Amino acid sequence: MELTAATPTVAIIDSDERAIAPSRAALAALGYVVGWFRQPWRLLDMIMEDCPTVVLIAGSRADHFDRWPAVQALHEMGCAVILATNDPTARHELFTTPRGRCAVAAVRVPYDLRAMLTAVTRAVQQYPANLRGGATTPRAAAQETACQARSA
């Protein structure tokens, strides 16, 4: 795949580099530009103007997703955010709370490669206009409205 300005980019935020290595390789093989970061603030410092297409963000604890401020900040910057967590409450919030609606999907950790690739592909296909300022699907429009309401 030839890299262009339209090539989808995926940033992965996970402190365990070994756990994410197969996912990074699979995404790169599919033609995505992939970056890896241990902490959300490292990515936030770099993307003030050019947000990745998709951000896969893992919680810092295996049993509790604790990255909600980063999820909201990334969403507000125009990124499609996918939660990586074993926290069933966080996965439930994805569909039921304003902060949960700032994410587009959730995948379990350890990573199920097929589920992760499906979530990333779906995010790239379904949310491109939302990522650049205009929602194209009912879920994307509802998601944007919910996050704006929470931010107000």
Report what the structure shows:
The chain is of the alpha/beta class and 152 residues long. The protein has a single domain, classed as 3-Layer(aba) Sandwich (Rossmann fold), CATH 3.40.50.2300. Helix content is 46%, strand content 15%. Strands 2-1-3-4-5 form a five-stranded parallel sheet, sandwiched between helices. The longest helix is centred in the last third of the chain and has 14 residues. The relative contact order is 0.15. The C terminus is likely disordered.
Chain-wise SSE layout:
Blueprint: E1 9-13, H1 17-29, E2 33-37, H2 40-46, E3 54-58, H3 68-76, E4 80-84, H4 88-96, E5 105-107, H5 113-126, H6 128-131, H7 138-151
What is the name of the CATH class?
Alpha Beta
CATH superfamily: Response regulator
Q: Output the structural class.
A: alpha/beta
Please name the CATH architecture. 3-Layer(aba) Sandwich
Alpha carbon gap, first and last residue:
41 Å
- Weakly predicted, low-confidence segments: 129-152
Number of domains: 1
Radius of gyration: 14 Å
Which characteristics define this entry?
7 helices, alpha/beta, globular, 5-stranded parallel beta sheet, Rossmann fold, 152 residues, 5 strands, 15% strand
